[in-house]
Amino acid sequence: MLKPSERQVGSAPPARASRKSVPSRRPRTESRQSATKLFVLDTNVLMHDPTSLFRFEEHDVFLPIMTLEELDNNKSGISEIARNARQASRFLDDIVSHATTPIAEGIPLARHEADNAKGRLFLQTEAINGHIPANLPIGKTDNHIIGVVIYLQKRDPGRRVTLVSKDINMRIKARALGLTVEDYYNDKVLEDTDLLYTGVRELPEDFWDSHGGDIESWKREGRTYYRIRGPLCQALLLNEFVYQDGERPLLATVKEVSDRTAVLETARDYTHGKNNVWGIMARNREQNFALNLLMNPEIDFVTLIGQAGTGKTLLTLAAGLMQTLETKHYSEIIMTRVTVPVGEDIGFLPGTEEEKMAPWMGALEDNLDVLNKTDDDAGEWGRAATRDLIRSRIKIKSLNFMRGRTFINKYLIIDEAQNLTPKQLKTLITRAGPGTKVVCLGNIAQIDTPYLTEGSSGLTYVVDRMKGWSHSGHVTLQRGERSRLADHAAEAL
User: Is the pTM here over 0.90, yes or no?
Assistant: First the structure.
């Protein structure tokens, strides 16, 4: 059974110089081979990323016959693994069918001049027996691939042969046998999720001394703007929030960035009752920044990351109701999430699409209860009427039926986005038509999908790729506001 690794990180490491020159079976490629590595790919690498064949730059790739067998065994079905297995097979067919050299000599991986892959693909063309250590069972696929690696090391002792696998146990076995083995690195957005863009930057104490010498300021539509000049301007990103505490605190958004100048726009204060959003006020700085993004019609894409209880769903729904029912900026709210259970699955659910999704939308129900109680003057009948009106404007959709759709003037909420792959999130975000706002919510510390980690989650991917675009924004919410019990449990447990 293939088991993906719990860590998925960057790309293949650079080549090292060979220790000594060894006569090769193919004299024409002796000098090139002695300077490059040979990577032996486990099947789970191809089924995780079919393009991994082209990710090893100038180095060569070797595929054991058992890897091809496992690709064939896993190609049937509609799962992500089956789709990837089929795509990997197509890539291999394309490479082999256009080969101009014998397979035993290696097939160039580069399909066109723009390809980074400069190495060659080697397929196992002969039986390799008798190289599996005596203490490993012979019939197991993993052990057969380890035997191939041992054979290749003996055949080319002057060349570095590296096994690449996402199976943790296979990597442990290979290391125990003294083999060089690595995880597949190319799919991880960041080495350390602590380096993930937070969307919020604290300005240094001497900021105005170093950046306020030639400052310009003006007012427009109730907002104050500052044009600053200084060394920090180069590091700022569009729609990044900056703040400074003190006697005269500053909360602002970066609206323009050039080489040595930047324009800051003061943020709206949603902690004040007069700026409440559907009866909800921001309780901390990050929530205030989040509402600035959610209520800004110029921002088409918002990502909010935070632990349980930081208010992601509540703020998003409040802003959605305000702009759907009050300002009529959007025609309706569409909410979806990936249906990955925390425990054992409870089986098939009866009913329509919305009825099947209802058990997964407990967060929606809980937050609607809070939002429906914000109007104390409405009375029981008024609240009941408001509840019916809200229900008519919120649609719950399944991810399974999203492909091919186009949402126009909708407020699309993707909850629990940390459980989506980059490909799935791309499919959802590209559903947005004119006038649609997409909001992705999640907590990358609570990933339930078996094949994802904090570094390779689709939510981490979109935060990193969309930062700095003039119509997108991100905030990492730090403080929990659910209850003192929830806050203490999040820290202590």
Answer: no
